[in-house]
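Re: export button greyed out
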Amino acid sequence: MDFDLNEEQRLLKESIDGLLTDSYDFEQRKKYMAEKGGWSKTVWLKLAEQGLLGLPFSEADGGFGGGGVETMIVMEALGKALVLEPYLATVVIGGGFLRHAGTEAQKAAHVPGIIDGSKTLAFAQLEKNSRYDLFDVTTTAKKKGDAYVIDGEKFVVLNGENADTLIVTARTKGDRRDKSGIGVFLVPANAKGVARKSYPTQDGQHAADITFTGVEVGPDAVLGNPEDSLALIERVVDEARIALCAEAVGLMDESLKTTVEYIKTRKQFGVAIGSFQSLQHRASDMFVATEQARSMSMFATMAGDFEDARERSSAIAAAKVQIGKSLKFVGQQSIQLHGGIGMTMEAKIGHYFKRLTMIENTFGDTDYHQRRVADAGGLI
Amino acid sequence: MDLAFTKEEQAFRDEVRQFFRDNVPPDTRRKLVEGRHLSKDEMVTWWRILNKKGWGVSHWPKEYGGTGWTSVQHYIFNEELQSYPAPQPLAFGVSMVGPVIYTFGNEEQKKKYLPRIANVDDWWCQGFSEPGSGSDLASLKTKAERKGDKWIINGQKTWTTLAQHADMIFCLCRTDNNAKKQMGISFIVFSMKSKGVTVRPIQTIDGGREVNEVFFDDVEVPIENLIGEENKGWDYAKFLLGNERTGIARVGVSKERIRRIKDLASKVESAGKPIIQDPAFREKLAACEIELKALELTQLRVVADEGKHGKGKPNPASSVLKIKGSEIQQTTTELLMEVIGPFAAPYDVHGDDGSNEAMDWTAQIAPSYFNNRKVSIYGGSNEIQRNIIAKAVLGL
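Workaround output, generated via the alternate export path:
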């Protein structure tokens, strides 16, 4: 049992923290947000230069063979700096599908572009009524000879506006909520019949609602078994949840730090407001919530390698519950302790709060995952 | 980073578990599961079994009878002990006064007291809190005056746990009235059988007698019963309280209680089916299990850190353990109350003597719920813990 980082992991942490300290303060972030697409290509290429975009890919695929801990380190750092660039969509989720199910040809076609920063991906999964159930799919992929024809609507596709390739879940068989009959397809974003409606999200990122109308893709577009890929989807989404837990820990760390600094300097009644016990106790509770979240983020990271899918899912669901509860408390209390200034766009704390809040509602909220843990009979 | 226990650690867990299965008296275990109090005999019998095995004072240095286990082994031992469940060693002797004596005591004191602590030949109690000195412990007033080769002790202690069983007390006494309040306190040990010691029970809201008031009226104590240096008692008290950082989370206790909740909830019906099938109840239980999992991981982080980097600088996460550990213990007793619903009401005054315990298996659940309100109060209340985090961790 060991919770320390090894030498290489420490170096990785130093390198990404260093890069973001230099190029991602709050003022710089504002500039990146104003760039076309809502994030900085320059920063993205810097991440590529440091090898971070190739981190989880095997060396045979041109990557660095990093595991869950390496992704955790990166996501925590990205959270701490409130990074806008599409690491989750491209490297964690897009890369995840390619790593777990990609054929050699598919990997050769997509992985080099991810690693060198020239291409980004997006995961088109959410539907109007699917909410958090990954198997609730009405988008169809109908076989037409060797090819598939995709029809349907996907919503809030993160990085959907900028992505070169979309990874689309679609039903090849069965009814809306059947657990079998779901496939995963690689669809070029500029394919005929793909229509994207883009918008900024509450946390300053960008997403798109995407309509697929008679979009024809070849057999090389199929990731895994086109008639039975729910397990694949669950696996990759579990990895995304783990990554979100780590990102949230980074966000909470920074929120707590910023808030504590603020109450040490803000004076009222002639003293720093941090000298008041009610505020001290609130800050202590924020610390407790952050540490409990960190513990569960580590647990989720290690659970990512559990062989037993049921055990893995329960552990990750449990982590998402703890992170959801902690982030709500830390986020809300950060604003409260900042007082009026916390309500303004000008102060950075509100932006952390908004990103934390969006994480809660991504890939299953606290209630959703708590129910999953309960249905699995708990953890003990 | 690696969550897995090594093969050796797993084998150790099996060994410990098997030992408990073979050696904890079944009636003792059952009473703990049901939340009943144990008699002095039941506890001492078990502790002597443990001591015979060489595990009575497992965390002490080897030269005084300790095991030399790694911090992970200690963690495993505690978790298995708590979740079996078996009575935990008497903290006042084993975790509190013992370490103070072997760290600050002289050779004679070590020889005289340590073996008797290990075998519970002496039952120790703690003379810290006073009616006017709870969270502000350093304001204590019990006085020890030097008179020839004796200390003359006068004053009153309170919340003295199981003093009715005690042979010995370790006591914080004021020995210098002129110094700053923390600087004038000494750590003195003496027999509870001394003339002038009076123990008066305090009945707690669960109906039990766990704590007492202890009065000292011109109690004469030999001068050599001072531990360490005169007026350094506050340092020893802080050492003592900081000594048991990880056990306080009581993860094993809460795990055991969750198993009991599940067991009862699959028998007790609500709306015509076992309450475990009620979605609202299940989710509440799941929420508690998740909190406990997070706490267990936090505790493991602290344990792994101590194992690697020593106990010198406490991991900041260790401050979480008392707060969360006590909250979760309280939640588990609340959930038990919820499971038994209206059957929480019958008052089983004789439960501890076993005179009618067969009659009512739910009788200890409400008392246990009432009793567990203490866990966020003792050992530095949770508000004090928040003060500590604010000052020591956040620098406020």
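Chain A touches chain B at residues 1-5, 9, 69, 260, 263-264, 274-275, 277, 279-281, 283-285, 287-288, 291-296, 298-299, 301-302, 318, 321-322, 367, 370-371, 373-375, 378-380 (CB under 8 Å). The button fix ships in the next patch.
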